[in-house]
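Hi, here's the filled form for the chain we discussed.

Project: internal
Contact: R.S.
Residues: 191
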Amino acid sequence: MLSVQEVSKQYKNSRALNSVSLTFDKGKCFGIVGPNGAGKSTLMKIIANVIQEYDGEIISSDRTGNHSLRKSITGYVPQEICLEEKLPALVNLQFYGQLYGLKGRELHERAQEVLRDIGLTDYGKEKVSIFSGGMKRRLNIGCARMHNPHIVIMDEPTVGIDPQSRHHIFNPIDQLKKTRTYHHLYQPQYG
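And the returned structure, exactly as it came back:
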C-alpha cells in the first residue's frame, strides 16, 4: 500500500500541487492523467523521493514516511532518458543495480534477466548510442527495475516509441502484476 496524504508543493510563485491525497493498493497499476502543468510529474517525483521538500506525507508499505526505505523499494523512470550512451546496455543496467547494492553474480544475473524482460538480450554489449528511441526507453525502464522494486513509477513511458517497444514495456508490467505485489504508477502519453 502507498498513501499520499495532503501533499502540496510550491515552486516560488507557482503551486504545483495543492493537498493531493491518493491511495494505491498492492498489485495495482494506476495512470495519472491531466493537462500539461497540472503537477503530474511533480507528484511522481515526490513519491519516488526525487523531490524531498514538500508539505504532506507519503506513507509506504512500512507504514511510515521513511524516505530511505521508500527510495529502496521504488524504481523511477523519468520522462527524460537517463542513460550513459557511450557505454553498453549491460553496463548501464549494472551501474543502476550497483546503486542499490547488487554485486557480483547477483548483479550479472539480474542484468541478464532484465535485458530479456525488455527484449534487448541481443543488444547487451552494444553501446546505447546506436539504439533507437524505443530501445533507449526500454533500457531506461530496465534500469529502474534492476533492484526489484515494489513500486515502479514511470513518467510518460511510451512517448515517441513504436508498438514493439510498447509491448516490451507493458508485457513485463502485466507479468509483474500477476506474480508480485508491485505498484505501477505511470503518466500515459496521449495524442
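Let me know if anything looks off before we file it.
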